[in-house]
What we know:
This protein has one domain (2-25, 70-188): Rossmann fold (3-Layer(aba) Sandwich), CATH 3.40.50.300. 47% of the residues lie in helices and 17% in strands. It is built from 10 helices and 7 strands. It has helices spanning 13-22, 30-37, 54-61, 93-102, 107-119, 121-132, 138-143, 159-174, 178-181, 191-196; strands spanning 2-6, 26-29, 40-44, 49-52, 71-74, 85-90, 148-153.
Amino acid sequence: MLVSLCGTPGTGKTSTARELRRRGYEILSERDLIRELGCFERYDSDADEYIADPDELRSSFLCLQGKEGDVVLDGHLSYLAPAGLVIVLRAPPWVVGQRLEKRSYPHDKVRENVIAEAVGYTLIRSMEEEKAQGGSDWKMLLEGDGKLVVERDVGSLTVEEAADWVERMIEGRRDKKIEVISPFRPGSVDWLEAHSRWY
């Protein structure tokens, strides 16, 4: 099964993917695929990254369908892939900001990603993709082969704990165990609700 491991930069995707690779999972890097498949609009020298063309990327990801075993695609746009499971890693916006500042991200990029995490941008985009591919009834998606989206705040977890949870989600999806997956349905993390309690 193809698994999308996505989230705002700074939520722990790549660290979790490295741990999953150590455990024997095949990991594909979205960043590498963008470069190898040539599905980018331009190169941003300030950020040292290729800016993906989402439509080309979505089309290019189709080549990943039918891969044997569990394959994890690591990247913030990986929800565009035809994955059976989309795992959105979340972290408190202030944690995302601290992590990105440690990586020397420009202030504007830190702010942009903190806001994206606060409003759940990656989750929303993942759910829009799920619906575009015919998803609507969550339980029906779990029992079928459609794209299923889950999320969790992993900001306070160790990398090993986050990888343990990802493995449980993969097993729960494969074995169609709603009791394992259900607590992590979209909407289980809401930074705006948490923030509004401060006022």
